[in-house]
Amino acid sequence: MDIRILDDAGAVAEAAAARMIAQISVRPDAVIAIPTGRTPVEMYRRLTDAHRAGSLDLGRVRWFALDEFLGVPPDHRGSFRSWLLAHLIRPAQLDPTRLATLRGDAPDPDAEVTEYEAKIRAAGGLDLALLGLGRNGHLAFNEPGTPADSATGPRLLTEATRDANSYLLPGGDVPGWGLSMGLGTLAAARALVLMAT
Q1: Would you give per-residue pLDDT tens digits along the chain (197 residues)?
Q2: What are phi and psi of 131, to 5 degrees?
């Protein structure tokens, strides 16, 4: 484990972007798990700028969102899919079909998470998983106490996690459940980068 303490959030964004660029340079069709939230915004901006300047090609990367609110459809402005489209896919002018996301409105959430795991395996597994850290220590929607070997599945969200995400949904009406890549799924990635600011 390489722990780096940097001067500020800008330096964290720069270091994370550099790690992403290094991965994509080695494997242009890398399979990368990506987060939402405030922490990665500047990193996505740096990746987008590099892509649009022609110094980085993001066009072949296969992106997998870490999580989604249960009950929220993909086209809802508060969905994590909408967030990732707004902060990475559209600004970089990438093909949105290269972004895989969990369907929060899936009629059968258990079938949805099983299919998501199958998609990750079919892509060859995660080359890199980029993670943020929730205020209460959650990774994706894996709250403290989630088994370390957990697969992608439904997760009961704590009040702290719901409060932290209230800015995303109108009226702060955050669902009590989410769908999330599991800790075991993430641990199987060939590399993990955790950003905390």
Answers
A1: 899 999 999 999 999 999 999 999 999 999 999 999 999 999 999 999 999 999 999 999 999 999 999 999 999 999 999 999 999 999 999 999 999 999 999 999 999 999 999 999 999 999 999 999 998 999 999 999 999 999 999 999 999 999 999 988 878 789 999 999 999 999 999 999 999 99
A2: -125, 150
The reply to whether 138 belongs to the active site is: yes
Q: Which of 58, 62, 52 is nearest to 25 (CA)?
A: 58
Q: Hey, what amino acid is at 80?
A: F
CA 88/CA 105 separation, integer angstroms? 23
The model's pTM: 0.95
Residue tagged active-site, from 67, 68, 112, 127:
67
Sole residue written with tokens 């402005």: 77
68 belongs to the catalytic site: no
